[in-house]
Specification:
By secondary structure, the chain is an all-alpha fold. The protein has 3 helices and no strands. The radius of gyration is 19 Å and the shape is rod-shaped. The chain starts with a helix and ends in a 7-residue tail after the last helix.
Length: 85
Amino acid sequence: MSDRAFVLGMSALAAGIAMLVGLGPALGQGYAAAKAVEAVGRQPEAQGEIQKTLIIGAAMAESTGIYSLIIALILILMNPLVNML
């Protein structure tokens, strides 16, 4: 097996693992949205504050998924590790 084939294979594997990281934010956002709906149901007068907190938390969780997508795209499309051989 050539070094180039090994690096390309490991890069594809790493990109796949990086995309699995995207499952965490998706599950977390769903859980947070469910808890926010429950909180508004219990205390409707606090809807504005709950909604602000939910949006900030969702934005922070989504950044993790975006970072993993960027890393996967760099590994697959640009593949900087091949140039090191």
